[in-house]
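Troubleshooting log. The previous run stalled partway through. Resubmitting the same two chains, unchanged.
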Amino acid sequence: MKKQKAFETFIHGIFLILGLITVGCVLLITLYLVVAGIPAIRKIGLGDFLFNPRWASTASEPSYGILPFILTSIYGTAGAILIGVPIGFLTSVYLAKLAPAKVRTVVSGAVSLLAGIPSVVYGLVGMMVLVPGIRSLFRIPDGASLLAAIIVLAIMILPSIINVSITALEAVPKEYEDASLALGAAPVETYFRVSVPAAKSGIAAAVVLGVGRAIGEAMAVMMVSGNAPNLPELFGSVRFLTTAVASEMSYSGGLQRQALFSIALVLFLFIMLINAVLNFFLKRSKE
Amino acid sequence: MKPVSSQINAKRKIQIALLRVLCGTSAVFTCALVLFLLVYILAKGIPNLSWELLSTKPSYLSGKIGILPDILNTMYMIAATLVFVLPLGVGAAVYLTEYAKNKKIVAVIEYAAETLSGIPSIIYGLVGMLFFCQFLNMQTSLLAGALTLVIMNLPTVMRTTQESLKTVPQSYREGAFGLGAGKWRVIRTVVLPGCIDGVITGCILSVGRILGESAALLFTAGFAHTLNGFFAGLGSAGATLTVSLYVYAKEQGEFGVAFAIAAILTVLTLLVNLLAVLAGRWFKRRQNHE
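Second attempt completed without errors. Output:
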């Protein structure tokens, strides 16, 4: 009996360790980013690092200012949200409320395909369709630009926005809608004036999730944005926080390499902030 | 004089029609986008597919490109990741649903899992490089890449398993306890068989993610195209299909090969999605029968 009890405690311990592995991973990631990211910031100076608009890591007098990357990431994400959210939101209202069951199955399948397509494939199509298209449409020397990245990101965040919004819209109690219909409102009016306001926390969560996806995307953006460390311009070649880390990692060393880790730390802080906001909305939509 | 109500009605009618059209157009746009992507990728990729491309490795002598190593690397990566992530994810889910009594610990673990699923893959790649490749001295290798992907996919497997554990009726557990079984015996004989649905769903979702992952693998698993067996492959650097698509398109300008790989990846994504839907339906039907 005693042996049995010791055995059960042992098993319990093993499962406890397995359960705590996720926590361990988060701590590991945080620890590594902080430890690897702080030295360069201390050498360069926090103000200079964040607000100097010039990044010239390989120049004879190197300058490590990541303002261009921060602004590009913010502008790019804002642009993607501006395009992606209206389309995604309206599609989700259609799918959750208006579409016949069969149409819904087909379109949902299409949306999950959109979610599953690898980001490098988006990058490839962007490189071959969007970049030349933008070049000839706006008569600029190179189409690899912030605009191309915004369009790719807008498409890539569609599935997250659509799926989370649908879940939120479906969770609206049917009584709300019935009451509105009984008062003489048309179905579409009911969906927009009753269901959508009732689901607003969930829809906000969908938008925040889209922000997180857009700011964290690296490969697709790397393939279409031109990758020059300029301050953001819609038709200019730009570099994001994510692509700044990826593009110089393979040949960097010394302070330059440390600075790349610092960029990752900044990106991580952005993501943690977005996660906190996301959790806030998710919690509120559950209540 | 016209009655006021009909004026409102006309205005309302236009508004209603407008909203309807807007919703419909957005949905049509989304579908058209998917259809365009599918047709474009397949039309550009399939003509570039050949048996030679699929069955050889790149050769500098003849200047020809083959993607067999990349296909094998992708399969090794999937196998290695699943081997590690399944026990970890299932174990964590069992702890949360069967053992954990302290609500605070549960909240912390769930918050950690949510945080993990929000972290971008480029950051996983960076930390994977620092921790697995450098600190644990694994060098750039498929194993280091797979372990990085284990952390990425842990929340997925954990969540799907948790969902299916919740569907195991409490009375089964009580019945087993009533027959005198210990906790571990109950878990082994009643709980674990009940979560097989969730484990399979988690597997399918993870395979989809591993297929599509590239940023986390660039600096952990590398770019090499050497032909290796499973265990030799784990210890050496190797590009998966996505990574080699990136290299061929961005660094080498081999767009034909890139589109061929894109077509393969798209078809595989379609298959994975289909499998997920079918599995979900099958599990639901089986549950209703019980």
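Takeaways: Chain B has 13 helices and no strands. The longest helix of chain B spans residues 4-45.
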